[in-house]
Write a structure and sequence with these properties.
This protein is α/β, with parallel strands linked by helices and 134 residues long. The chain contains six helices and three strands; from the N terminus they run H-H-E-H-H-E-H-E-H. The protein has a three-stranded parallel sheet, covered by helices on one side.
């Protein structure tokens, strides 16, 4: 059963949401259509921590930048800093990343996955400095 206070909060929230107007400074952003922004840089590198970040957080941005790169106005590249091998699924996650970037339109020649040699594939521990320098 919904309490009276919960119902009041819901109604007030809906009314305020319906009346909300974007601030003057946000007007341009709120009314822009996808791909309708100017890009000053000619080379753009998007760096993500691990597979799935590109689709969870950056898919609209990637789609817009890939469209601009097709018109030869920019060069867009994507770099992933880990294969996400926490549970031994690194190769699977790399394959998923490749498929995701295929769907988003990023060419194979403009995307990379790198693994730092000092990070264990099971995230058990990082080597000490004296172990690396041997």
């Amino acid at each position: 059963m919904i309490s009276t206070s919960t119902l009041i909060v819901l109604v007030v929230s809906l009314l305020l949401g319906a009346l909300y107007q974007p601030l003057e400074s946000n007007g341009l952003f709120a009314t822009q259509k996808p791909g309708e922004f100017d890009v000053i840089a000619k080379n753009i590198l998007l760096i993500t921590a691990h597979p799935d970040d590109e689709s969870l957080f950056f898919a609209p941005t990637i789609l817009s930048l890939v469209e601009k790169s097709r018109n030869a106005s920019i060069n867009f590249y994507q770099l992933c800093l880990s294969a996400g091998n926490a549970e031994g699924l690194g190769e699977t996650r790399k394959t998923e990343l490749d498929r995701s970037l295929d769907v988003l339109g990023v060419p194979e020649t403009k995307r990379w996955v790198i693994e730092h040699p000092c990070v264990s594939s099971t995230y058990s521990r990082r080597p000490e400095a004296h172990e690396i320098l041997r």
